[in-house]
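Readers of this paper often ask what the protein records in our data store actually look like. Nothing more is needed to write down the fold, since each code stands for a local backbone conformation. Below, we set out a record of this kind in full and without editing:
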Amino acid sequence: MDLRSLKYFLTVAETGGFTAAAEQLHIAQPAISMSIRKLEQQLDLPLFDRQGKQVRLTDEGEVLLRHARTIVQAVSDAERDMRELHTLEGGEVRVGIPSMLGSYYFPPILMAFRHRYPGIRLEVVEAGTRKLQQMIHSGEIDMGVIVTDDPPDDLETHRFLGAQMVAILPADHALAEADSISYDAFFAEELVLFKEGYFHREVIDQISQKAGVTPRIGFETNLIPLIKQIVAHGFGITTLLEMVVADDPALVAVPFAPTVWLDLSLAWRKGHRLSRANQTFADLVLEQAGNGNR
């Protein structure tokens, strides 16, 4: 059975005649009659009782009618879904973002994407960059934000942000007005840090290893508002992206000496063709970066 024959059969059954079906489908009546005849020959079953211009379904035709409706509707639904994906009226984007960027960099981008393409379902997963790499590999997410100091060979990466990690101190700290802070001075303090697996923590671990010191960690948490409150009340210092404290008068951002810069990229599996919805999201992220949204 082919789809066209089923459509002809369904139309004849619903209109009650070959002539009426031909008019509705805007094709010649003999073409419909021939198609139905071939379908009956293929099935070796009569589908219609023909009585002059009027026809009615046989018992066998009634059985096929149920299936034909289901099949034709399923194909119609599939075609519609494909059109929606092509025109970005539907689809899904699953993106992983570390909490710091998810809270302070991506909200305008996510809202802009949602505004432009309201029919696309947007799923945002929060996790550390190492976990996000694993989720990309396993197919749990379509793309994710990673630090590309040493990008994996099996991921395609596109840099969208260069950001400086800075020491975050309470406004009344002795070093709050300093032009920079040395690694030795930073590690002399009690620290408030993210848990392992986040780029925030990896920066500290890498610096401490180079400096040959063991960080004094007073608090471990991935909750940024809690980290800021702990630092503001003088129970430790931390390091974050400067954007996190830009509007917080209780906290001061002091650059490291030497400075610590990170390259952040949007990544997905190498050789994996992004869906139209995902490619559009990636293009928007890179477009915003090109417009100076940093």
